[in-house]
Amino acid sequence: MAAFILPMGKSESWKIVDYGKIPAHLVSFADTSMQIQVQKSAAPIVYPFEKPLFVTGVQVQSSVSGALPHLPKGLQQGQKGADDATLRLGLIVRGDKKLNWFQRKIAPRWLLELEKLMPQNYGIRHVQFISTCQQRELLHKKRTHYLDSSLKEECVTFLEKAGPFTLSKKWTQPLQVLGVWIATDGDDTQSRFELNIHNIEISHK
Fold first, then answer.
1. What is the number of alpha carbons within 13 Å of residue 165 lying toward its C-beta?
2. What is the pTM (predicted TM-score) of this model?
3. How many CA atoms lie within 13 A of 7 on its CB side?
4. Is the Cα torsion angle 146, 152, 154, 157 positive or negative in sign?
5. pLDDT per residue as tens digits for the range 81-130
6. Which residue from 29, 92, 108, 119 lies 20 to 30 Å from 13 (Cα-Cα)?
7. Closest among 148, 120, 94, 102 to 183, alpha carbons compared
C-alpha cells in the first residue's frame, strides 16, 4: 500500500474546467493550499493522473469561511434548486474506451472537457464523489445525480457551520482512478463562501 499528497499549492498541476454559462470560481494558490472563492459559481477543478491508480482511500483536510450554501426550505440537498455542497471530492473512474462520434454529439460539455484531460486511450466510466452535507439524514447516504447517472455521490461529513472539516473514505475494492475532481458549488442556491483545501492524501495499491 502506498500514499501520496496532491500538490495543492501548485497551480500548474490543476486544470479548471469551464461549465460555459455558469460563472467560474476565483481560484488562487498559496504554498501548500488552494483557495476557492465561490460567488454564485461552479467549476470542476481537476488533477489528472499520469496513469490509472488503484485507489483504496482518500482523506481531505479543508476549511470553509462565510456562510454554508443556503439550502431552500423544503428541498433536500442534491435536488434541483438545492444541488450545491461545500465540498465534493470526486474520483474519476476509468472506463474501457473514450466516447465515440455519436456519444460526443450528445455528451455534456463537462464530460468532453474532462475526457481531454485524462491519460491517452482511457475513457470515463463514472465519477465517484464523497461529499459534505448539511442535512443530517443524508449522512452516509448514496445518490446518483438527477441529471446524469455517471455522477455518483456519498455524504461522509455532516456540516452545521463554517470552520475546519475532514472528508475521508476507504474502499475494500479499489477503484481504478484517472484523476481527482474538486467540486464546490454556489450557483444553484446563489451562495457565496470561501473554501480552503489544505491537504488531499490518496492511498493506492
1. 21
2. 0.93
3. 9
4. negative
5. 999 999 999 999 998 877 777 877 877 777 777 788 887 778 888 999 99
6. 108
7. 148
